[in-house]
Amino acid sequence: MEQMTDNRQPILELRHISKTFRTDDGREVRAVRDANLAVYPGESVALVGESGCGKSTVARMVTRLISPTEGEIILCGRDISKLEGKGLRDLYRDIQMVFQDPYSVFSPRMSVGTFLGEGLVHHGIMNRAQATEEAKTLLALVELPTELMDRMPHQLSGGQLQRVVVARAVSIRPKVLLLDEATSALDVSVQKQVLALLMRLRKELELTFVFIGHDLAVVRAIADRIAVMYAGMIVEELGSEDLTKARHPYTQRLLESVFSVHDRTNQKVIRVEDMSMAVNANALPGCPFRPRCPRAMDECGTACPALRELEPGHRAACPAV
Q1: 8-48 pLDDT, tens per residue?
Q2: Which domains does the chain possess?
Q3: The whole model's pTM is what?
Q4: Numbers of helices and strands, H then E, in the chain
Q5: Per-residue DSSP letter, 269
Q6: Burial track 146-181 (b if 16+ CB lie within 10 A, e otherwise)
Q7: Burial (Cβ within 10 Å: 0-12, 13-18, ≥19) of residue 101
Q8: Which helix (H) or strand (E) holds 316?
Q9: Pairwise CA distance, residues 167 & 133, whole Å
C-alpha cells in the first residue's frame, strides 16, 4: 500500500480488508470491499459516507468486535485480524472505541467512579484503590466535577456521560482511539464542546484518532485526512483542508447535498437533498457508484476502479478524474 503522508510507519493499516455477511435467506451482502487505509502516529483520520456505506463495519473490524472476511489489519506492526483469546483481550490495551450511544457501554448499576477505574484494574495498571483516585483525575481531564464519582448513569446528561466514556477510553493511554459517530447523538452546542475536548485531549495525550462520521462539517474540524466511503469501498482520500479539491463524483455530491451548514469558504448554505443509499450497489459489476454517477463511462460497468494518486496526499477511485 502506498504511503501518502511521509516515510514513517503507519500505526494502523488496513490492507485489502473485506467483510461479507450472509442473510437469513442465504444471500451474501458485501458490507466492505477491498478497503485500504494507513493511519500514522499522532494523526486524526476520518472515515465518512452516508448511512450503510460500511464505515461502522470497518470500525468494528478494527476493534475486532467482528472479524474481516479477507485482508489484514496491522496495528503497531502486527496483524490483529486473527487474534483470539488472551491476544484479543490484550489488544484493547492498545486500541479503544467510543460509541455513538454511551449508554451502550455503561452498566446501569455501575457508578461513574467504578466505571472509570475498571479498565485500569482490568489491564493490571493499578489496583482498585489507586484506580479510584485516578478516576478523580480523569473526571478533571474531561472537565467534570469530582462530585460525579458516586453518580449513576441515569443521573448524568448525555454530554456528561459521553465525556465519562471518553475519559475511560483514554485512561489506559491507548495507541489508537476510534470514535464511531461519537458526537452525532448530542445537541449541537454540546457536540461543539465535546469536539473541543477531543481535540485538546489529542494534543495533550498525543493520541491517534480514527473518527467515523457522516457530517463533513464536524469531521473537517477534527480530522487531518478524510477517507470517503461508498457502498463498502473507499472512493477518495484527501486532506481535510482540501475538500474543495475533491474529484470523485460521489464526494462532490456529498459536499453539495448532505448538510445544512455554512460552508467555510463561500458562506453559502449548503442545500439538503435526499441521499438514500443505492441498495446492493456493491453487488453490481464494476463501479458501485455507476448508477448514480453523472460521468459514468462504459468501462465503469466492467471494472471496479482502484484508488490512484492524483497528487501527493490525494487519491480517488474514478477513471473520469
Answers
A1: 799 999 999 999 998 888 888 889 999 999 999 999 999 99
A2: 12-94+174-246 (3.40.50.300)
A3: 0.84
A4: 8, 12
A5: B
A6: eebbebebeebeebbbbbbbbbbbbbbebebbbbbb
A7: middle
A8: strand 314-316
A9: 14
